[in-house]
Amino acid sequence: MRKKRIYMEPRKISGESCLKYLFFGSFFIGILLANLSGSQKLLDYGVFNTYFLKQFEYSSISYTDLFLYILEARAPVFLLLVLLGITEFWYPMHFLFVMWNGGALGFLFVSGISNLGIKGILLVILSLVPQYLFYVILYLILFFAQQRIHAEGGQASAGLSRGRWVMYLISSGLALALLILGILTETYLNPGIMKNILKIF
């Protein structure tokens, strides 16, 4: 009996899977760079050094100033994601965005551990909630909406149907609402969480 040859096609990696691998790869690179910078430097200048945390624990917070500061930091990034997402540079933009955030998070974890030991991991995680729950969801909404726009290749403006524009505007509006919720929680909830947690440390 003649045996049939079975040819296995190479598994294609989707855009979101590629970004996922990039995030974790950048995360470990961030850990490596933080370790190469030296433990003493992280102790002196790290975000979670003891002196800074004590100052934060007993300081009063100007919520208006904090809100404006966070808005100034988050809004331009959001606008870039929305506007560049309809251009041919949308995927390189996401590539750089994910790579930067993965590396920064890895560096942040090492900084926390260098200053506080294993407790630093908990503090880093708590410093990101609840605001990053909204930020991650809004990013995913924008990414998949832009992926649909560019699904047929070419620039988004070429042959883009009215329905796709409407869906993208709805997705962007939903992402904007999540951005506002993220900024509000980062301003008014996260500092209180951090102050209460620091009493334990």
Summarize the structure.
This protein is mostly helical and 201 residues long. Helices cover 76% and strands 0% of the residues. It has 9 helices and no strands.
Strand content: under 5%
Q: Over the alpha carbons, how many angstroms does the gyration radius reach? A: 21 Å
Give the class from helix and strand content and strand pairing. mainly alpha
- Give the termini distance in whole angstroms: 73 Å
What is the ordering of alpha helices and beta strands?
HHHHHHHHH
Explain the layout of strands and helices.
Elements: H1 15-36, H2 39-45, H3 50-58, H4 63-84, H5 90-116, H6 119-127, H7 131-149, H8 162-188, H9 190-200
Helix pairs in contact: 1-5, 3-9, 4-8, 5-6, 7-8
Textual characterization of the structure:
Helix content is 76%, strand content 0%. The chain has nine helices and no strands. It is globular.
What descriptors fit this protein?
201 residues, mainly alpha, globular
